Please model this.
Amino acid sequence: MTGNPGRRKRRVGLLRRLLRALAWVAAMGALGVATVAAYLLGYTWAAPETPAAGDGTTQPASGPDLAGSGRVNILLLGVDAREEGEQTRSDTIILVSLDPRSQEVSMLSIPRDSRVEIPGYGWDKINHAHAYGGVELAMQTVTHNFGVPVHHWARIDMPGFLELIDVLGPVTVNVPYDLRLRDGRRLDAGPHQMDSELALAYLRERYNDRNGDFGRADRQQQFLIDVARQMKSNLSLLDVPRTLAVVNRYVETDMGIRDAVALARLAWGTDLDGVKRGMVKGHGVMINGVYYYEIDWEETNRVLADLGIKPAAGLQASTEGTKSR
Model:
């Protein structure tokens, strides 16, 4: 019994589009690759069973989901977990915000040295929240300070995850300006083909970036978009098994199958050139001999409004509340 060839062909085509859409989102923050594994392997990664230490006043949001109509915020944490199970500081912190109705996608980078109030620990650098209490405390810290709900999270061991570049082939990345890496290599402005080792060095570099953390955050966002565009075009079904092997080892998320499918649909319809990008505003300060990034809350709230993450009507109250802390 051979079945219906036309129906079988349509199913293969649908699966191919779904996989490409999910992998596209992966390049935009590793979210889709994680959900590919959840979807295909039939399981989900759960959030940590032990709640993070804190004062209990700020809980992660549980409202809208990707299959609904409300805006959804996903916290992307890039970590360097050198030992399995080790709690590390988050080197990359990006809040990805999606509007299922308009298919709008926004990305807010939060500098790792941002001085914020970590529930239960006081004022400290925001990247310490993950080291103190994992993803739960990182989510609480973002909500507590920026006044926006965080509905989902994805945690990526960046050095390992970038093995995907070697699996799928080198990627072309547009370097915005001349940049010298810490190991002495120089990248001239313009397109460069990168393997995983060069990509990691490029994404980590901040000391030789003329714009410091601002420059690195902007390059990280553009890197994700550049890679996303290529993965959307080039990923094939033959790449899936090797992709899943990398995902299973280096990516964790709390999103389930329902959100995986909804995320794929949203990803496929999103215009990459229309992704809104922004960064927390502020300036560097030294406090007791330690460098911090002091946030300008009024300007940052304007950025949140421009990105559509926070209603403009609530900015004044939010800013006043932040300044009173």
Observations:
- Residues 21-59, 82-86, 316-325 have pLDDT under 50 and may be disordered.
